[in-house]
Structures are given as C-alpha cells and as structure tokens.
C-alpha cells in the first residue's frame, strides 16, 4: 500500500519552521506507540544539566531528519535528475523517520553500561511484532526488511543509505542545527538551504556541486565546534559518568542478591541483560528518573549518594592531568581509599576525542573500521573528487583530534579530610 494523504499534515518546528507529511505510511508511523515513546527520550541525554534549554526529544529530531530527507528527495524529483531512483522515495523517508526509534533512556550512556546498540534495537522494533512492523508490512511483506537494511547500511543501493548515514547526512545536519538551537549557541549553525540546493544524485551516490564547497566547509567546522563546545563539555561528561556509575552499581547490587525497596520488572530485565523488545519499549527517562528518586533512599550508601548527586546536580569536580601515569593514579587511588572513598566509583579518567572528518581510504583492510561515505565534489566537467583534496579547511580537521585528560571525583570528602592528604595531591586538587 502506497497512499498519499488527502490533505498533508504539518508540524510546526523551531528549526525547519514546518515539517510536511504527505504519505499515509509516514503519518501512520508517527502515530505508533513506539515512535511516540521518543517524546520521552531526550536527544542530548544529560546535557540539560549543563545547558538548561537542552530538553528536546528524539521525537523532534527524528521528524527533523525525515524533513531534511524529504527536502533532498523533493529537490531531486523537481529537477528530474535521472540518477535518483524514484522508487526508493518511501523506503528513504521511512528509514530517516525511524533511524533512532531504538534509542533508550539517556541514549549512549545506557548503551555503554549494558553493551547494547540502538541500531540493533531499532531493527528489532522494525522486524518484530510491533505497531511499526504492522504499518511497514502494509506497504509490502518485504518492506520492514528493506527499511532495516537501510539502517544496517546493507541496502543494495548506497545512495539511499548515504541520505541518513554518511559524513554529511540528514541525521547530522538536523542534530547540529537542533542541538545548537536548544543549547542556545551559534556553533552548530550553517547554511542548510544552500547545502540542499547543491546536492546531486550522481552514479549511485550523492555528491556536492563544487560551487557549494564553502557551505560544506562551514558545516564541517560547525560539527567540529559542537563536539568540543557542547557534546564534550566537561560538566556534561561529569553527569554522564555519574549516570553510568548508577547503572553499574545497581547492576552490581542486583546480581549480588541485594533486595531493592523498589525495582520495576522492566528495570530488572535491563540489569539482568534479558530484555525483549516488549521490555525495552517500557524504558523511558521518566521511569529511570523515578527509579533514581527511589534508589536515593536505598540502604546502599554508594547507590544512594550517586542517585542524589544526579537528581540534584551535585556533580563530580574535575582536574586536568597532563600525563596520568600509573604511579600518579595509584597514589590518588590509595589516598582516596585511606579517607573512605571508593576509587572504583569516585575517580574516573575521561579523555574525549573526535574524528571531525575521515578521509576515505580505499586500502582499508576488512578488519579495520570503515568510515562513513566521504563527501564528494562534482566539478563542471563531471569529474568527482573527495573534498579534502580541494579544501585546505577540511584538510586541517582531518585525523584524530584529542582533548585533555580530566580526572573526575567528588570534592566534599577531600575537603573534609585535608589533613590526611599529601601535600603533592593537595596542590594537584587545588586544596591549598
């Protein structure tokens, strides 16, 4: 079933102004309970504790990715570009809309603790007995597998995959603009309309007219700045560390037989790593926040303290360490233990790094991680070149960009026990 709505639906959006829905399938997907759950999942995890406006949801981001994809395809169709496979329109729009439907509460922090992957959960939601699966199967019996293949990057037409998974895809373009808007910064802004105008389908891939290179440079620099100013903000990293520690301590206690005063079944299976799709879909940030409120009153003092810190924003402090060698870290660990702290939970080294743009290497071996599709420029003679070959700016941000080593810790125990802390560590932690 491929049916157009008799009257298009419109969402008012602060980033794209309007989001247009013309397909019955897209409208039906938006109204499934699995997609509506994304209203209860924040896009930026714990960043709201650093930037108070960052309360936007995966729901609004997913709509935004859909809208950018719709605009790209509409531009291809209006101009009649022969290299765009028109029959791939609906699968592209569905994949764009659903690409994040498998995200759990606080997104990547949850994934790190329980070794899960939101793309795997997305595909399970698409392929198992869900409302989303039933909507997709109304198109054809094979349609859920086709949409899942786009998300898994195994779809036979790379041009479709690159719309939502490349180094300049609809996903990245929306989250940069949206995250910049809601955090109140200008770092993530770039000329989206200009980029959309210079995209072209060409020989099975999406390329950029060479005249649009400067707009792409601006986009890549925006991404670079957003990672170092927003996504890697040290206060946000502190809240993420505490969040992971809460889940780790709760799992440690649960597996060890500790009896919680309050433990819903959906969190039990999370801690036990036995989740089904039905269990997973019950998880949202409201439930997790409720659990933290209850666990703040548990008899386990470590779990209680961690939950209290997260709920009331009593986050860990941090210091910058130039070379955190093993001798120094052992000295800090021994000192923390001597004053009743738990080094496994009360000290953590964080070292952020990012790859702003990954130059395509055709010689990568099978065992090496493959980068997302490169950004290709199309010149007036229909010749293709990878953007870093033409742009000094892009070359300047290729390769691994590393931050500083930060050691995170609770400050209060150190201040209470200053007389028991060696002078060298007092200076390091600025306790003089």
Give the secondary structure arrangement, pairings included.
Layout: E1 4-13, E2 17-23, H1 24-30, H2 33-36, H3 58-79, H4 89-98, H5 108-114, H6 118-127, H7 131-137, H8 143-151, H9 158-164, H10 170-183, H11 192-198, E3 199-202, E4 205-209, H12 213-231, H13 234-255, H14 265-271, H15 277-280, H16 285-295, H17 301-312, E5 317-321, H18 326-338, H19 343-346, E6 348-350, E7 353-354, E8 376-378, E9 384-386, H20 392-396, E10 401-402, E11 405-409, H21 412-416, H22 423-428
Helix pairs in contact: 1-4, 3-4, 3-10, 4-8, 4-9, 5-13, 6-8, 10-12, 13-17, 16-17
Based on the coordinates given, report the CATH architecture of the largest domain: Orthogonal Bundle
The percentage of residues in β strands lies in 5-15%
Number of domains: 2
**Biggest beta-sheet profile:** 4 strands, mixed
| Proportion in helices | 40-55%
Alpha-carbon distance between the two ends: 72 Å
The CATH topology label of the largest domain is Hypothetical protein af1432
Secondary-structure-derived class: alpha+beta
């Amino acid at each position: 079933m491929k049916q157009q709505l008799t009257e298009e639906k419109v969402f008012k959006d602060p980033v794209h102004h309007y989001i247009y829905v013309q397909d019955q399938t897209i409208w039906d997907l938006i109204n499934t309970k699995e997609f509506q759950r994304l209203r209860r999942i924040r896009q930026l995890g714990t960043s709201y504790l650093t930037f108070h406006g960052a309360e936007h949801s995966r729901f609004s981001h997913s709509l935004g990715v859909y809208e950018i994809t719709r605009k790209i395809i509409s531009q291809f169709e209006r101009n009649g570009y022969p290299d765009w496979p028109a029959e791939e329109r609906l699968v592209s729009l569905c994949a764009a809309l659903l690409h994040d439907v498998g995200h759990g509460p606080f997104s990547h922090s949850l994934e790190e603790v329980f070794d899960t992957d939101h793309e795997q959960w997305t595909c399970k939601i698409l392929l198992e007995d869900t409302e989303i699966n039933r909507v997709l199967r109304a198109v054809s019996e094979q349609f859920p597998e086709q949409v899942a293949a786009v998300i898994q990057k195994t779809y036979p037409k790379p041009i479709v995959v690159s719309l939502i998974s490349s180094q300049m895809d609809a996903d990245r373009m929306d989250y940069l603009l949206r995250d910049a808007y809601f955090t109140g910064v200008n770092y993530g802004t770039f000329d989206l309309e200009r980029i959309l105008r210079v995209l072209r389908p060409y020989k099975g891939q999406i390329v950029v007219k060479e005249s649009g290179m400067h707009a792409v440079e601006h986009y890549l620099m925006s991404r670079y700045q957003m990672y170092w100013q927003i996504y890697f903000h040290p206060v946000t990293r502190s809240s993420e560390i505490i969040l992971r520690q809460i889940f780790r301590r709760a799992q440690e206690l649960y597996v060890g037989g500790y009896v919680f005063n309050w433990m819903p079944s959906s969190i039990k299976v999370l801690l036990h790593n036995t989740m089904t799709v039905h269990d997973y879909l019950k998880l949202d940030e409201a439930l997790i926040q409720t659990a933290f409120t209850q666990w703040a009153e548990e008899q386990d003092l470590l779990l209680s303290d961690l939950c209290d810190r997260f709920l009331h924003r009593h986050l860990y402090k941090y210091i910058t360490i130039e070379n955190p060698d093993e001798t120094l870290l052992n000295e800090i660990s021994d000192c923390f233990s001597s004053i009743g702290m738990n080094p496994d939970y009360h000290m953590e080294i964080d070292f952020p790094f990012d790859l702003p743009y990954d130059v395509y290497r055709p010689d990568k071996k099978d065992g090496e991680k493959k980068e997302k599709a490169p950004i290709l420029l199309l010149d007036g003679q229909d010749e293709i070149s990878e953007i870093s070959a033409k742009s000094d700016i892009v070359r300047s941000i290729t390769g691994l960009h590393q931050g500083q080593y930060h050691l995170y810790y609770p400050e209060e125990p150190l201040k209470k026990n200053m007389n028991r802390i060696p002078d060298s560590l007092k200076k390091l932690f600025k306790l003089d």
